[in-house]
Amino acid sequence: MAKNKALEEIKNQLDQGIQEVMTSKKFQEWLKFLSSFHNYSFNNTILIYMQSPQATLVKGFNEWKKDGRFVKKGAKAIKILAPLIRKKKEDNSKNQEGKKEIYGFRYVNIFDVSSTEGKELPDADAVKKLKGGGEWEKSLLKEWIEKIEIPVRFEDTGEANGYFHLVNNYIAIHEERDTTQQLKTLIHEYAHYLLHAKGAKFEKEGKRMKEAQAEAVAYVVMNRFGYDTGQYSFGYIAGWSRDLNIMKQIGADIVKCSHQIIEMLNKPMRKDVTA
Predict the structure, then answer these.
(1) What pTM does this model have?
(2) Among residues 221, 204, 229, which one has the least CA distance to residue 257?
(3) Residue 87 DSSP symbol
(4) 106 shares its domain with 150
(5) Which of 118, 150, 173 is the last residue of a domain?
(6) Domain residues for 51?
(7) Segment (H or E) for 105
(8) Do 35 and 220 form a contact (C-beta atoms < 8 A)?
(9) Beta strands 162-165; 116-118: pairing state
(10) SS3 109
């Protein structure tokens, strides 16, 4: 009974957290927070943020132990949801063989790195603060363009920084913008491709919603790579619905899309094999 009550409290906290974050200025803070937790589900990013907004790296007690670090005595746990999974019941269908299903959730305790002590951790995920449009940015832009699976063109796009061409399926970037702006525009337009192309989940949404979604994803991805576009992005992101269920879905897709792009950009470049 105690576990059920605790689980219910977490779910209530989740709904309250979504309502609070997605319909207030906290949305801006959550997006920045999300850049470090893009591999967690939307629900769990909200739960982590509401309980520990300063968190940077979280793991379970035993996972920290494997890293040679130990949770400090009296440290407060962060409670998140973990799915309960079981094999699907037999229904005499070959297609169901070996398939699993989620039949509920339980809460698990995790701890931020600040609540642990022990072996020093490698600084591989540290964000390098980068500014301007120097040679590094030019190299990064070239690499990202090669990793994105649709064509990218540089042209005079007028007042706009760029656009995604829905019919011909390519991204156009303003040829005279500085490289940092071109990086952000590339991610913004690529998010349009993933979320709003023909047949995509949000194809039928209105322009205002589409632009807010794409810019939210661009902000998360750019922040992950060390660029704070907040001054530009947060003025752009507006007009969100106050319906809780819509917020849950939109938030989940921002998380999913950001994660997809970050993972793709983090992959090493393929080297051509020569005979």
Answers:
(1) 0.76
(2) 221
(3) E
(4) no
(5) 118
(6) 2-118
(7) strand 100-112
(8) yes
(9) unpaired
(10) strand
Interatomic CA distance for residues 190 and 220, integer angstroms: 13
Reading the block at residue 270, the tokens are: 């393929």
Any idea what the Cα angle at residue 231 is, between residues 194 and 215, rounded to 5°? 10
Cα–Cα distance, 244 to 228 (Å, whole number): 28
pLDDT tens-digit map of 95-133: 555 677 877 888 899 999 999 999 987 654 433 333 457
Give the model confidence (pLDDT) of 165-194 as tens digits: 999 999 999 999 999 999 999 999 999 999
Structural domain contains residue 206: yes
DSSP states along 153-181: EEE--TTSSEEEETTTTEEEEETTS-HHH
| Distance (Å, whole) CA 104 – CA 86 | 10
- 267, two tokens: 């992959």
How many angstroms separate the CA atoms of 21 and 13, rounded? 12
Among 179, 181, 174, 178, CA closest to 159: 174
